[in-house]
């Protein structure tokens, strides 16, 4: 098997000063990529800033003979996001890969979530990912090549208590992936989303009961709930070799899987008038029936799938 390399390619990894992002940056650099190591350097809540986190990862890459430069801008600020991509262009002349990994965490039950928590989580995760990827998309379109990865979460796609704002922002990655995937396809740009799970400072925010479950499952997985067990899928997804687009993947403890969003065949109401509420109640089991499940690949595709079922009635 030929090894997967990134020579002459430039990667931007946001939030790469620790946790998951650090392992992505190190692996990409080890495989020849020049890496922009972005990190705001604040605390887990997203407050504060500093240069030491990004600097230490850059130092690791340089010590191993790789190419890297640090950037300390916040992804949550659109000018900062532009500056992150500009750093790649100024230092290395192009941008081929963007891994949107930067993130903060503020857990609170729904009725305890403050406006500031909601704004902060949405600014960093949702707006931040869009700002950085938008800035890169322009250059990727011009060069006819790009790989973008968004970082979602099982909290966003499957749910988790105390994370309403975080989960909503993370579910937004699915929307970003769908539209970047559709608009990028004709320009050689592939976009996907990852749901990772690994021990990092973020996992420390779990409540004690979840932490206990996490520890027990980690033991079952042979203590493989670590960032380096996530990295192989991430690096493959942003490689030239990977043709996947507009897809969602889960990586946990060395188990890699695709996440699918399906549409049941559903129940078709009368054509001559809208169904009554009672009709819907009477056919709710048909609406829920998962015997036939389609996976529409766009809004129009959903309409075409419905039309196919209508014609078959
Ligand atoms: P981490 O806290 O170790 O890493 C996040 C990094 O992002 C930090 O180094 C932080 O300084 C940086 N950052 C925060 N706000 C920033 C901003 N505005 N601009 C630039 N950098 C900023 O956490 P971890 O676990 O490595 O998380 C990485 C990503 O994976 C996050 O997006 C997180 O939401 C996601 N994730 C992690 C899971 C896990 O199990 N660790 C589960 C699901 C998703």
TrEMBL record:
Keywords from the named record: Oxidoreductase
Keyword Hydrolase part of the UniProt annotation: no
Keyword RNA-binding annotated: no
Matching InterPro entries: KR_dom, NAD(P)-bd_dom_sf, Peroxisomal_Beta-Oxidation, Sc_DH/Rdtase_CS, SDR_fam
Superkingdom in the source lineage: Bacteria
Domain Ketoreductase: residue ranges: 9-192
UniProt protein name: SDR family NAD(P)-dependent oxidoreductase
Family classification: Belongs to the short-chain dehydrogenases/reductases (SDR) family.
UniProt cross-references to PROSITE patterns, sorted A to Z: ADH_SHORT (PS00061)
């Amino acid at each position: 098997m030929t090894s997967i390399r990134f020579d002459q390619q430039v990667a931007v990894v946001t939030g790469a000063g620790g946790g998951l992002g650090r392992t992505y940056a190190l692996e990409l650099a080890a495989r020849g990529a020049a890496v922009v190591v972005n990190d705001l350097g604040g605390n887990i809540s997203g407050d504060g800033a500093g240069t030491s986190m990004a600097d230490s990862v850059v130092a690791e890459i340089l010590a191993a003979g790789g190419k890297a430069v640090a950037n300390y801008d916040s992804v949550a600020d659109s000018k900062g996001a532009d500056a992150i991509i500009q750093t790649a262009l100024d230092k290395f002349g192009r941008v081929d890969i963007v891994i949107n990994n930067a993130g903060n965490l503020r857990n609170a039950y729904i009725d305890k979530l403050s406006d500031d928590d909601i704004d902060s989580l949405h600014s960093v995760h949702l707006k931040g990912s869009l700002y950085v990827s938008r800035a890169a998309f322009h250059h990727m379109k011009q060069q006819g090549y790009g790989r973008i990865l968004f970082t979602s979460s099982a909290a966003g796609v499957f749910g988790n208590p105390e994370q309403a704002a975080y989960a909503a922002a993370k579910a937004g990655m699915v929307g970003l992936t769908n539209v970047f995937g559709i608009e990028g396809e004709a320009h050689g740009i592939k976009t996907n989303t990852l749901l990772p799970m690994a021990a990092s400072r973020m996992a420390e925010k779990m409540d004690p009961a979840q932490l206990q479950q996490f520890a027990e499952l980690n033991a079952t997985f042979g203590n493989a709930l670590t960032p380096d067990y996530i990295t192989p899928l991430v690096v493959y997804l942003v490689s030239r070799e990977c043709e996947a687009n507009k897809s969602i993947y889960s990586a946990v403890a060395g188990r890699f899987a695709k996440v699918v969003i399906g549409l049941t065949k559903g129940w078709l109401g009368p054509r001559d008038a809208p169904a009554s509420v009672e009709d819907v109640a009477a056919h709710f089991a048909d609406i829920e029936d998962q015997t036939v499940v389609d996976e529409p690949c766009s809004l129009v595709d959903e309409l075409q799938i419905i039309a196919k079922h209508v014609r078959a009635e």
